[in-house]
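Researcher: I'm preparing a figure for a lab meeting and need a structural model of a single chain. I don't have an experimental structure, so a prediction will have to do for now. The sequence is pasted below. Please return the structure as tokens so I can convert it later.
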Amino acid sequence: MTRPTRSAAEPASAAASAPSPRRRPAQPALRLSLQFADVRHRGVLARSDVARWIRAALAVPAEITVRVVDIAEGLALNLEYRGQDHATNVLTFPYAREPLSADLVLCAPVVEREASAQGIALAAHYAHLLVHGTLHAQGFDHERAADAKRMEARETEILAVLGIADPYLR
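Model: Understood. Here is the structure written out token by token.
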């Protein structure tokens, strides 16, 4: 059997870059820094999982730092940057849009409390919050009802691809 040849009209680069039907589409590049100020969930947050969850939500290449903090640091950051006198589950600090540069800060005790109250796996809740924060870093918001609906739909779509149930159906 002879090897098929490229036609004269087909450039070499087209033949070489044709996607394989078995490959997943290329995801944007991610430079990830993972920091644990609160180490209680280090075992739940494997670097490969965190990167997979964030990449699933990325539309552009990114440099993202994920920092897992305790109540004191979560409270201090939420008070300083949002004027809210309580720790929250995730804070997003976007610095640039393209390439995307952002910090995502997750408060471990709040995330744990919410996962327990909702009866969901801790890892699934972290995945949701990382997707949520990554979308915020890319300009998604939920201040107005229409924006919230759009953001929640995108989160649900991404989480479904990751095999995680819709968090808004609870």
